[in-house]
Design goal:
Number of domains: 1
Helix content: 25-40%
Bound molecules: iron/sulfur cluster
Order of helices and strands: EHEHEHEHEHEHEHEHEH
Number of helices: 9
Strand content: 15-25%
Oligomer: single chain
Number of strands: 9
Radius of gyration: 18 Å
Length: 316
């Protein structure tokens, strides 16, 4: 019997690599003042190169500007414009740019099909280690963002970053926290289990052998309505990837030309991935960045955008 596993054909737009946080493990950021903000013309040029038939999601992923910085408004406006531009070009934007105020989040919800923010870990010990210089990684702030997105009825993606100095108790507590927020608002469509993957051999990678059991436990803790997502470029051993599917993972997340957060971990060619899965009895299917059960939360315009793409990719 063939079973189904989904992925989101995506392309990532990066408004800026500048970030006021300094997470110890980050391979993405540059110091404020050392980068630039993408122009809409540059974004348009990037979108023009895409194959409109095969790309569905535009992931807008950015370094963060401090909420009190004079640069915040400009940064936020550009993110809004990029979301709008993506929609105008027939793509479905999904924004993940760090914690937002209620006003910012509700503005972006008007031009995004879904949004996301990694919870990472609820262990507060990390606030004095890897997140010591990352004020926006405060656990309380992240939990508040999950609550806020629920209150605003935004279909949401969150997840755990595994192997940044937490202990196992933090894994289960993080999943419990997500489950409990979902029970209140019902808005979390998927949870990513992302193994920390160093870009140089000096740092210690998360032990991938642990992942299938974590997926299995996560499946017990999370409500069935939440899909568990595994990034296939980071789960580099096919046997482990397949074991994660057997344990309950059902989605492979966004697959595009480059993983901006883990640029040295390339996705294997889609056809090869499809064949690997097919040989183990899995059918890989494209999906939208919003799950059908949430369509009715969208404005009429966004619903229309989702229906259009849904018809094109025949995800059903
Ligand atoms: S918040 Fe994100 S981009 Fe900024 S330093 Fe941390 S991991 Fe890097």
């Amino acid at each position: 019997m063939t079973r189904e596993i989904t992925y989101s054909p995506s392309y990532t737009l990066v408004p800026t690599y500048e970030c006021f946080n300094r997470c110890n493990y980050c391979n993405f950021r540059v110091d404020p003042g050392k980068g630039s903000l993408i122009t809409t013309k540059q974004a348009q040029d990037q979108l023009n190169l895409l194959d409109r038939e095969s790309v569905i999601e535009i992931l807008i992923l950015s370094g963060e500007v401090h909420p009190q910085s004079p640069a915040r408004e400009n940064w936020f406006t550009r993110i809004y414009e990029l979301s709008k531009l993506s929609l105008q070009q027939g793509y479905l934007p999904h924004t993940n740019v760090g914690p937002l105020s209620k006003g910012e989040m509700s503005q972006l919800a008007k031009v995004n099909l879904s949004m996301g923010l990694m919870l990472e870990q609820v262990s507060q010990n990390l606030e004095s280690t890897v997140h010591r210089y990352a004020p926006s990684k405060k656990v309380q702030l992240r939990l508040e963002q999950l609550e806020l997105s629920g209150e605003l009825r935004i279909p949401f993606t969150t997840g755990l970053l595994l192997g940044i100095g937490e202990n196992q108790d933090s894994w289960w507590a993080s999943l419990e926290a997500i489950a409990s927020i979902w029970r209140k608002w019902g808005h979390i469509q998927e949870v990513i289990l992302q193994p920390y993957s160093p870009q140089s051999s000096q740092d210690r990678a998360f032990d991938l052998n642990l992942l299938p059991d974590i997926v299995k436990n996560a499946r017990q803790i999370l409500p069935n309505q939440i899909t568990i997502q595994i990034p296939p470029n980071l789960v580099t051993i096919p046997k482990i990837l397949l074991a994660c599917l057997e344990a309950g993972a059902r989605d492979l997340g966004g697959i595009g030309p480059i993983d901006e957060v883990n640029p040295t971990y390339q996705h294997m060619p889609l056809q090869l991935l499809q064949e690997t899965l097919q040989n183990a009895g899995w059918l890989l299917k494209p999906r939208l960045p919003i799950y059908p059960e949430y369509y009715h939360w969208l404005s009429a315009d966004l619903q229309q955008a989702a229906f259009c793409r849904s018809a094109m990719v025949k995800t059903d």
